[in-house]
Amino acid sequence: MTNRKTVLITGASRGIGKATAELFGMKDYNVLINYNHSESAARELFSSLQKKGASVALFRADVSQRAAVDSMIKFCTDTFGGIDILINNAGIAASKLFIDITESEWDQMMNINLKSVFNCSQAVLHYMISQKRGKIINIASIWGLVGASCEVHYSAAKAGVIGLTKALAKELGPSHIQVNCIAPGVIQTDMLESFQEEDRAELRSATPLQRLGKPEDIAAAAFFLASDAADFITGQVLSPNGGFVI
Ligand code: NAP
After folding, report:
1. pLDDT tens digits, residue range 8-63?
2. Which atom of ligand 1 is nearest to the CA of 62?
3. Which residues, 6 or more positions from 100, have their beta carbon under 8 angstroms from its beta carbon?
4. Could you tell me which of 93, 112, 63 has the C-alpha nearest to residue 154?
5. What are the residue ranges of helices labelled H in 102-228?
6. Cβ(208)–Cβ(243) under 8 Å?
7. Which of 77, 88, 125, 230 is deepest in the core (most CB within 10 A)?
8. CB of residue 117 inside a 6 A radius of ligand 1
């Protein structure tokens, strides 16, 4: 067993989670790639990282389901001997008038974007608290900070993630566990698929840095927050957004 640190990244089959898994994998972390529906994409990522010499494993779990999450954490500690960093990245988005959101759509948004953070964080804390060390990084959104029209359920879930981050950071400080949050701006992933090119162009020109974000921009922020260089940072919201929200 090496003394590499272990990171679990939820929703790592695509987009931001995938770029984050690639970065940590190439920087000598043990990486557990979590996925739910995108089995072939997750397997492809796993094989490509393995071929490059990374220490990786793969686990399918719907992070909104507590029993599946508990099995995943057990698999992670059995496979790598522990868990040092949890990145709660899995999420879904949807665009709908508030008046049209159904109860089941509301529940699904909360379960996948917010309850998942409760599930995964509580499950890893059984390990982290006893080792008096660990980092939790939650991926929220600028919409959790400023609200998005036609994305009230998404914005509410992400604002919940920000509140959870701040409160949990206070509770876990004495256990030397840092809890931070990243609130990305508009990032080019499958999540933007429903946007027309003209909407993207508008977003680009409304961004002071004149471009949309890349998954790698968020991976780099997560890598920093996971590093020893961020040991005195907790309860914070880092928002890589090109200046879109200042
Ligand atoms: P994406 O490309 O659509 O990827 C979403 C990832 O989440 C996929 O790997 C998906 O896995 C996983 N996922 C969804 N539901 C899951 C579940 N129940 N259990 C486990 N995994 C699940 O989206 P993305 O843009 O990378 O988004 C990643 C995170 O960043 C999300 O929390 C999102 O809200 C946040 N964010 C994105 C943007 C943006 O502009 N893209 C901006 C701000 C914040 P499967 O396909 O395997 O199910």
Report:
1. 999 999 999 999 999 999 999 999 999 999 999 999 999 999 999 999 999 999 99
2. 19
3. none
4. 93
5. 103-110, 116-131, 142-146, 152-172, 197-205, 215-226
6. yes
7. 88
8. no
pLDDT for 1: 47
Q: Which of 43, 44, 92, 211 to mutate to test the pocket of ligand 1 (most atoms within 8 A of CB)?
A: 92
What are the chain's domains?
6-238 (3.40.50.720)
- Kindly report the backbone phi and psi dihedral angles of residue 180, in degrees, each rounded to the nearest multiple of 5, phi listed first: -135, 170
Q: Is 154 a catalytic residue?
A: yes
Contacts 24+ apart (CB under 8 A), 73-76: 73/8, 73/120, 73/123, 73/124, 73/126, 73/127, 75/32, 76/6, 76/8, 76/32
Q: Which residue has the higher pLDDT, 76 or 195?
A: 76
Q: Is 13 in the pocket of ligand 1 (CB under 6 A)?
A: yes
Q: Is the CB of 11 under 6 A from ligand 1?
A: yes
Q: Are 114 and 214 in contact (CB under 8 A)?
A: no
Sign of CA dihedral 217, 220, 225, 229: negative
HSE-CB at 7 with a 13 A cutoff on CA atoms is 32
Band (194; pLDDT cuts 50, 70, 90): confident
Residues 15, 190: contact at Cβ < 8 Å?
Answer: yes
Q: In this structure, are residues 115 and 92 in contact, taking their beta carbons and an 8 Å threshold?
A: no
